Amino acid sequence: MLSTYGIPQIQTRVRKIGHEIGRTIVELGVVITKYKANSAVHRSTAMRLRRDPTIQHVLPSYINEANSVAAAAEFTSYGTLRVKYGNQGQFDQFRGLTMDVMTEAQEKIR
Questions:
Q1: What's the pTM?
Q2: How far apart are alpha carbons 80 and 24 in whole angstroms?
């Protein structure tokens, strides 16, 4: 819940950066991470974000909370992302998120 409080500040900062560099930065959407499907708070927060008119879009792929995701920034050579994120679905979640971002970007270009 607390992590959603910063969304307006991030949106404002990104618009300011775009203005400073003389370019429009297009918001593709919000990515929901550290999600727990069995949490009523997480489900209601996701629904609230989807209904919020100040948020351009909530991307459909959520990234569930997992140790492999929490350790994502730690550099260790794994050979492939599938090996790094394991067979518990995290790799597939990142693949889905990548497809969502690419789809949104292509739609914004048109």
A1: 0.77
A2: 35
